């Protein structure tokens, strides 16, 4: 009888070790599979997802590399450096710097960026699992949150793109984790970690401040109430959260000036009263998370959370997401990757919903059966989503694009070019080594008017825009057909110098008559 407590104790230790093994096994398996699917079709060109934004970073990284490269032809090195310096700076080029440094060992291989983005995103799964486990009160529910985070089809494609957003989202989730671990056990060391993680997330892309600072402030008030301003740890967290971006912004706006132009053309409150804005917003949500019903479940998770702190924390995260949408209304309508933070937010928000289902299953059956059901459903959904990601990546092959744009660059090498072309000329610049003046698309004209610019039709100022250019390149055939004044002017007054599958080149040097 005296041995019974010891037996019970040893049994408890054995069960904990067994659970730890399975937790480690499943989390590691999910992370490895999540990384593996993102590295599928690794060497395809970065044109599968918002090519303009990816090539923006690709040109920067190539220029940063060219600044110290010794194995590039001098003419290419000079062009790469010039293109890098002419591209505007928005966020600190952290991703571009990492990729440029890696080019020292790999050469100019664009897939390097894909590895970094994928790795950063997948590592963000660790805090997603930890937080989901807290919100769902069970490690299996944490695993479900991790599975959602890693396998949402849109996220599988977006999270491997060459832009700061995958790193930003990962650091955002780590910042949530840092703040919550500090809240549970406030120490000075954890305060430093929480502040640094929040500061790094905001530095990578400052718009994430809407989703980092409010939940952080909430947990500070939950811990200290109205005494927050008297607490050294609170000051450490807040200062470290805003200091990196504050220094960067002060330097960029008031010292070097490169950030001055980046604060215009972003805030459009007039869209708030336009029903189209909300319809498109809902469409973007459905596109990113896969279903508006999953979105509704995420909102329901706010009210199903077992803990009042959890409810308030989820609520403030959702309010941050909506505040971001109103602050960047035009981009929320047109740039689906602005909704990327919605994926981890959704993964965590459905955890209380799954917890409710799990508890009901336990009442009807028993714990092991309920756990087996949840894991079974998760594995099926996880595998199905991963297959969708694989099919999407397999469906398109962009490798031929490099030779197409290289050929166009050779054709236009001896003259200056005005172009109605893909991605603001970035494809021509990257693979064709040729810069071009950019003729605006209809979307550009709409944004210009939305920003308060002149509504005067730019097509009637054709002569002023083409002055000094030798050629007019057309690769956006749909846009060309939808701009009849431009089409009529070029075809009636200028010689078609060359044409092929996907391009037209007009000679601007010798007009046939006055347009």
From TrEMBL:
Domain called Glycosyltransferase RgtA/B/C/D-like: residue spans: 91-242
The organism's place on the tree of life at top rank: Bacteria
Transmembrane segments: 21-40, 111-131, 138-155, 195-221, 233-255, 289-306, 313-332, 369-387
Keywords from the UniProt entry: Cell membrane, Glycosyltransferase, Membrane, Transferase, Transmembrane, Transmembrane helix
Keyword Transmembrane helix recorded: yes
GO molecular function, one term: pentosyltransferase activity
Key word Cell membrane present: yes
GO biological process: lipopolysaccharide biosynthetic process
A Pfam short name: PMT_2
Main location: membrane
One of the record's GO cellular component terms: plasma membrane
Compartment(s): Cell membrane
InterPro entries the UniProt entry points to: LipidA_mod_glycosyltrf_83, RgtA/B/C-like
Membrane topology: Multi-pass membrane protein
Protein name: Glycosyltransferase RgtA/B/C/D-like domain-containing protein
Organism from which the protein derives: Thermanaerothrix daxensis
